[in-house]
Amino acid sequence: MPSPEQQRAAAILAFREEIARLEREGVALDAATLGRIGAHHDAELARLASRGDVDLAPAAARLSMGMRIATLLGTIALSAAYVLFVSSHWGGLGLGLQLTLVIAPPLLLIVLTHVAADLERSGYVASLLATVAVIAFAVNLGTLGSLFNLPDSRNALLAVGLLGLLLAYRYRLTLPLLPGIGGIGGWLWTLGAVPLGLWWRDGFGVLEPLLLVGVGAITVPAWTRGPAAFAPWWRGTGAAAVALSLLVLGNNGQLSVFTGSVRTIAVTYEVIGAVGLAALVAWGIWNDQRIVLQIGTAAAVLYLFLRLVDWFWHWVPQWLFFLIVGAFALAVLFVLRRLRQRMTVR
Amino acid sequence: MKWTVIPIAFVAAVNAVVLVSVAREGAAPAAFATIDVCRGEVQGGGTSNEPPDLLLRRAADSLTPRGLDSAGLRALGFSEAVIAAIGRPRDSTFRWPRPRPAWVLLRQEAKSASLERFVVVAVAPRRDGLVPDSTSLLLRGRVGISDHPFVAELIPSSLHLDREQSTALHHAAASVGCGRVGSVVIASGAYGGIWVQSVTASGSK
Lengths: 346, 205
Description:
The structure holds 2 protein chains of 2 kinds.
Chain A: H1 4-24, H2 31-51, H3 58-89, H4 95-119, H5 124-147, H6 155-171, H7 177-190, H8 193-196, H9 208-223, H10 231-251, H11 262-286, H12 290-312, H13 318-345
Chain B: H1 2-27, E1 29-38, E2 42-43, E3 53-55, H2 70-76, H3 80-85, E4 100-108, E5 118-124, E6 136-146, E7 148-155, E8 158-160, H4 163-176, E9 180-189, E10 194-201
Antiparallel strand pairs in B: 1-9, 2-3, 3-8, 4-5, 4-6, 6-7, 9-10
């Protein structure tokens, strides 16, 4: 997801490319005005470049992609190294060393995140360290639970999620935002077990709370302040939660909070799913939220496919089934094309 | 600077809350139970990648524990319709509810029968309804119903062994050469905590 700074730089570069094309095609342009715009853009690009990680050429953008992949791989590798090191030496350590080994790493990694954020403005190293800090904190809490035979608790999810959000918002880092959203979302999801009188883990087996959490996550950017780059992640994870819960509930009524006929519940959620996913796509289109639109469209296509299987698989020959699926796909393409044309005209 | 301190303070505070509550439990154990330990119950430790644990193995249900009758199931939150369906023919749309949390009282089975396994003797929705003694353990669990009520899970399902405890039991398992490797004293805390207090390996004095 490009940052606002990157989007601004891309717009300036596209503008320059278009001006150069117009000049090649012989369109007369006011040189004085172009000069003033060029100077302003030079200053703006210099300002954006000084603020952080902005690619000013296609080659730099490709390198940035490589750096992002390296950051992700580094995060996974460092986390795995830490977990495997702890587990391979665990049995031979005394309690004091064990406690030090699980409590110290997240604290140390938070300090290192701060240092890295100060020294390296692109944020890649800080992002990596902050995410490993969140994972180390999750290992810390899980290990304390197993050391002292504590019953597992949903509050560990809340603690891990809060740390992820604290680091993400403090240092404007996207990667630790994801465990932050996951932890807080998971905690809220399991709260559905409270009124049902279930053990907290069984809350994951009820999907309506996930649906509500997803709707809540979509609205977070509207009522919180934070880096603009975070908004698509909140909306994207929210849309994914909404889509997942609607798709699953439409196929398995046993995962509903409601009791009664499983079939009736599933059919009800088939209807709610059709309306809900259409609303998600429409919301994404009208509010120009690309990530919500993409997730909503993918879920709607999957929903249609699942319904077609439900309705036709056992009743028609297989060749006819796939013919129907193809016809539906063409119909979806036609509808989306019409929508796009209408938006272009608007 | 303030914002840098907040994540550090947060991590430290969460750890402090856990350690203080553990220390408070450990300072005043409410009950001790001595149980026999079989080789198969000692897991991990030594050169293994797994942490050292004492597995709490349950024997197959041979009797209905106290608290799993109709009144007990009602107290656990199961509906009348579900309780009425136990042992009766049901229509195809019927589904058993999800397991519910409970406190579970375990006792080691008579040694002549199935050595070292635990049987569930009682189940209750609250801890104060059950009191552990020198032969029983009290811990959390989940109670489910599928044709008949049963304890679906013990929480935790195993107890941590420290380095010395693990080494003693592993050493006994290697030297004794038989199933039973020693006995273990398990302490129960006043607030629901449970831990291995000490071990006595076979052959040690």
